[in-house]
Every structure is written in structure tokens, then in C-alpha cells.
Automatic annotation (TrEMBL):
Domain of life: Bacteria
Domain DUF7133 per the UniProt entry, residue ranges: 53-193
Pfam families: DUF7133 (PF23500)
Signal peptide extent: none
Protein name: PQQ-dependent sugar dehydrogenase
Annotated organism of origin: Pontibacter toksunensis
Amino acid sequence: MRQIGNKESGFLPERLSYSVLRRCLQLLMAFTMPVILSGCHLFEDDDNIELPVLQVPAEFKVEKVVGGLQLPTSVTWDDAGNMFVVEAGGGLEPEKLAPLRIMQIEDGKATVAVDLSGKGINPAIVGIVWHDGAFYITHRGEDLTGSVSRVTKSGQVETILSGIIDSQAEHQINDIRMGPDGRMYVAVGLAGNAGVMGPSVAPWIMRSPNVHSTPCQDIVLRGRNFKSVNFLTAEPNDSVLTGAFVPFGVATEPGEVIKGVKLCGGSILSFNPTDPMGTVETHSWGYRNLIGLAWDKTTGAMYAAENGYDIRGSRPVKDYLDASLRVQKGMWYGVPDFSAGREPLTLEKFEVPDSLQAMVFVSGQPVGKNLEFVIDHEASGLTPPDPSVVLGRHEFNSSPSMMDVAPASWGALAGHVFIAEWGDLAPPTNPLRGKDPAGYQIVMVDPATGHLKPFARNMLPGPASGQGNTGKGLDRPFDVQFGPDDAMYIVDYGVVKIDMSKAPPYAYEPGTGAIWRVSKK
């Protein structure tokens, strides 16, 4: 290929196709951090061009550890430094779509360490941690309630905690971590979108009619009931009223007291692993769908990542962000009456069009469709959350998931919180969202400033599969952890697409999961 000028001039080749220039410009514009310009291979023949799909800052390198995994969710290491990943077996609903297994990862291969099929475990297995010679996993039990089980490498399974009602719906028990105090911590999602059970969770209600959001302490309701189609009857015109924190079809009254439960939803629960049911207690609560937990080993600060509201169900919320949070013991974080940014939902900006809202009734009388509080906070002894608890302000629908804190060896980035953003599920979770994707990346937050920016993401926005690059970049990053070698490990759940012919409308592609490793050059 003839060059303009000599070798020292550094000019581009004389004949450079427009498509190559366009791709290189996309690479430069799509990523705000430093990139390796050698990623743009300036050849005339487009068929020979292999642009990097997964991008990281220039001082780091990224490599695939293993691919072909069956819906992996979380990674852990044993005392000898061996890596294990748990395969969920399913997705948002408790149907088995793939094997329920713990896999050992070694030399670029995944081998079965423990087969969990037929052992009282229902999908999805979400969290895993190694402690005191065994694995601890979170999952749905035989009755679909949220559970924790202890699993040995020989395959013995003992369920040590069970009965979390909220997990019978779409948001279940998620991350599990050992805290610096020797107690084990779990992140628990809240049933339903915003405290009210309705048609958007019909498949779960039909399996478990008593499922509902549960509070961690006694609360007093304002008696707001939401009218919806009664999908439990054959009559097409049948409707029903449903209040907050009660099963579908149950109306509430102003001043009605809902008793708090020990195994509550929308919470962080902690327990002594030697006596879980006897020592379980609420660390903090008032979250929506809490996914990930992490601690800064230097400062002791605790963080959590939360999936925010959807525009769906009987009580839809048009929020403006998802959030990662600073965790304070004993605090109520405001859900379902405060936004991800911890602002009151009574603000007009959180309202959705009337066509998407249910009519609200109080004491049998219609009161309109405004988004009001469902809890009497003063009567319940609840203090509104302070917005300062927000760590990172993530894009709405980006779905912040599991997280970790960079170790000291990461220099200027030590202490930064890295969070996997699983990505949006629009339009089922947000019919008002445009085509621009949210999430599908790893972001980092500086706790000192709250500044959030991407760290690892595809060259173009959205999942790699949507760009014709399945397996070459991130699709649904769910877990990010720093290993014993101080490298970052990213667990990618794999391809999940929207299929409106299904209920729920999600199509999973087992066998497309992967683990990526990011390290300094």
C-alpha cells in the first residue's frame, strides 16, 4: 500500500475507505476514556478488519477467561485461590432454563464442581460466596421463597435460611457476602414494582397467590387501593382493588397497620452463618430490587446497588435514574414512596401518563390517578431518606447489579466502586423509553465525589449480540469482583432479548455466558 510521504511522517494510507474511517471515528467518539488507537486497523479490505468490541482504558488489558457458560451470575474463590462460578438455572421467573451448577474455572475451561439439580433448589441461583470450607448460595426454595443454602464440594446441600415471601415474585434474594464483622449479608428484592401487586406480575401471583411486598417493621397505610383487571377469574370484565403490602385482590383502609416481618423484602439482612434463622436481623431496608453488596476494606464503608422503578404495573413510576447507595445500619431508604435519588414520589416529574396508571380508590371512593404516598410515614415512625445516601447516579433502566471496591494495587483507582450494569428490559419495563440502550457496561464511582463514568463497555452502546458480535463483548454483565490476583473479573450472564409473545416477555440464550478478566498492562 503506497504511503503519502515517508515513514517518519506518520500520515494515513493514501487509499482509505470511507467505511474504515467511519468505524475508527465511531471508536473514538463512542468512548470517552483513552483507547488504544492501534485498535483501528487501517486496511482497505473491510473483510479483514477486526475492531475491538470490549473497550477498557488504555493502561489496562482485557481478555476472555471462559465462554459458553449457562446463565452465570456470580463468581467466588476458595481458600486455595481456585475460581468458581454459579450458573443460575433460569432467569427472572422460577422456570428451569439451564443446569443448576457450580462450575470450576481453570485453564480457560469450565468443569462441573457441584450439580445442584434435584436438591430442593429453584432458579434463579444468584449469589455465591466461599466461607469456612463451603459455598453459600442464594436461590428460591421448593416453595419459591427466598433461601440460602450451604453447599459442600462433595455435593451436600443444606438450606440454612428460607421463607422470604417477596422472592415468590419477580424480585428475589440476590447477592450474598461475608461482612467485616463476621456476619453474612444478603440483598433482598421487594415484590412488585412499587409495593403493589398487579397484572405485571400475574405469572408469579398465579403460582403464589399470597405473594406480596413485606415491610421490616410495622407500618401504617394510607388506604390507597389500585383498580386492575382480575386475571384470576374467567370473567373478562372483572376488576379488583389491591392495596400496598398485601396480596393481589386485597383492599386496605386508611390507618391499617401492616406488621413487620423478620424475613422482609427490599432489605439487607444479616445473620451468623452458624445459626442463620436464630440470628437473622434487618441491617437496613426500604430498597426496591437490591442486587449487589460491597465493602471498602480500608475504610469499612458499605455500598449497595439497586434496580430502580419500572413504568409498569398498577403503580408505575417514571424515575430519572437508578442508584448505587451508601449503606447505613438501621436506616429506611424510602421505597416504595421515594425515588432512586431519594426524592418524594409526590413530585410531578415522577408521574406517568394517565393511560398507564390505575384508578386509585380510598375507602371505596375514586380519588384520581396521582402518584401519592402509600405509607403514613409519621404514623409509622419513618424518617424520609436523605439524598446524600446516593453513591452513584446511574442512567434510568441501566440496572446496577453486583459490585466491588478496587484494591490498593489499583493505584489512583483504589477505593473506587465498580458496578456491573445489566442493561434495560424496555419496552416491557418502560414503554416510554426510546431505542437508546441503557447499561450493558461496567461503571466506576469515586466515593469522594460521586462522579460516575464507564470503565468497560462495548465500542458501540448496547449488548454485543445486538451488534452482531455475540461473545466478543458484553451482553448482560451481572457480577464484577476483584480476585486474589487483584485483577477484575466480570461475569456476563449472556444474551437476553425481548420477546413480546412470551409472558414474561424475555428470551434467554443459555450457553452465551462468559467471564472476562481486566488487569493492568
